[in-house]
Amino acid sequence: MLECRHLQPSVSKQQSKQLFDRVREDNPDFHQKIIPISSELMQPGLAISPEDVEKLTGCINIVFHCAATIRFDEPLKHALQLNVIATQQLLSLAKQMHHLEAFIHISTAYANCNRKHIDEVIYPPPVEPKKLIESLEWMDDGIVRDITPRLIGDRPNTYTYTKALAEFVVQQEQDKLNIAIIRPSIVGASWQEPFSGWIDNFNGPSGVFIAAGKGILRTMRANNDAVADLIPVDVVINLTLAAGWYTAVHRPKSALVYNCTTGGINPFHWGEIEHHVMSSFKRNPLEQAFRRPNANITSNYLINQYWILVSHKFPALIYDLFLRLSGQKPQMMRIFNRLHKAISLLEYFSSQDWEWNSENLSMLMSQLSPEDRKTFNFDVRQLNWPEYIENYCIGTKKYVLNEDMSDIPAARQHLRKLRNIRYTFNTLLVVFIWRVFIARSQMARNIWYFVVSLCFKFLSYFRASSTLTN
């Protein structure tokens, strides 16, 4: 990469973060190797200046192409521009690079999510990319928005649709470039490098975990028995680097695809994630939680909608009413609406299973020396899921929310306070129901006394049984 002075302050700020501490210890001058250039994916030629193009074509050996929009609800025109047309333009630039050894394209394991079994091959695109681009050029945004559902067909969103098109675009250049395609599944926090649990954004499962830890998220529609195909970000990076080496050295005749997933190798399920996330946040609570962490997963639509009404919308309305009465701006309903939108976009991926072939990944691992296998570790068979989820949750606390671990005792005290409030509220609710419904009806009183007497008899029997056993 080449110098662009107005970007240097931003890059320097990134390099000063804790993420680079380990690199800084090993090589204090590492920043001299990172030189940014100015580029814009929405502009012709990626808006790279002629001077930078000339320098790039003269010195680049490997291109790692990971720039893309990851928004699931991106308008089709924007997604096509960012994920397909920008890829075409970068490929055009790559073909001008005199010393290029490999072009590594980052796709997604869900590019072909309309298939249940996904091999490490590039499937025929849903439509010829060139024809689609030419057709959408003359359409206004309203028309494109109306025809988008019919265009994407059995894919859930424009992201997976355009990533499938991008794979085909990359494949078209395999006779001119040495190409590999990496398909990661749901990218999560780091496993080992630069340290366990590093994450710096709310994307993917991170935002869901935080919402659950804060007590905001109470219900989520997913299949407890479905595989949650999370892949640690450092595993993706290590595989990408190893694939770059193999592609440059061995120069495969056709583009190799690497499915970077865990489900077929070391599966972990959404029900297990629910359990470990809740347990972790109860041991290491987030500060100023809205409620105690207690999220539940259900695959039933009606049950999910019931809990959304009871555990999300009703408390949000009460809290917003309290804010209005105290002269503050209501915000909780807005937060819940945004959460529901984000969760609904994930439902497709949390409610079903896929099978990914990983033969190329295994082949690549076998090509590495024992030392390189340790340095560029992408063997997810070694991944301990409960430990990983624990570190992931702690990572969201430390690196996303910037909370201090020394404040955990205070956070635990806050959870105890919330528990006491809940017990008090439930007691008052029972008293209210008694006064309004049961005390005014003879039949209701009879039923109530019958239930209480049964409970008393059961307790008496249990106490007597325990005494006889002793």
Structural overview:
A four-stranded parallel sheet has the order 1-2-4-8, sandwiched between helices. Strands 3-10 form a two-stranded parallel sheet. α4 links the parallel β1 and β2. With 470 residues, the protein is α/β, with parallel strands linked by helices.
Brief summary:
The protein is α/β, with parallel strands linked by helices.
Helical segment count:
17
Helix content: 40-55%
Main beta sheet: 4 strands, parallel
Query: How many β strands by DSSP?
Result: 10
Sequence-ordered SSE layout with sheet pairings:
Elements: H1 8-15, H2 21-26, H3 50-59, E1 62-65, H4 76-94, E2 102-106, E3 117-118, H5 129-137, H6 141-152, H7 158-171, E4 179-184, E5 186-188, H8 205-213, E6 219-221, E7 230-232, H9 233-250, E8 256-260, H10 270-283, E9 296-298, H11 301-325, H12 332-350, E10 355-356, H13 359-367, H14 370-375, H15 385-400, H16 408-438, H17 442-469
Parallel strand pairs: 1-2, 2-4, 3-10, 4-8, 5-7, 6-9
Helix pairs in contact: 4-7, 8-15, 10-15
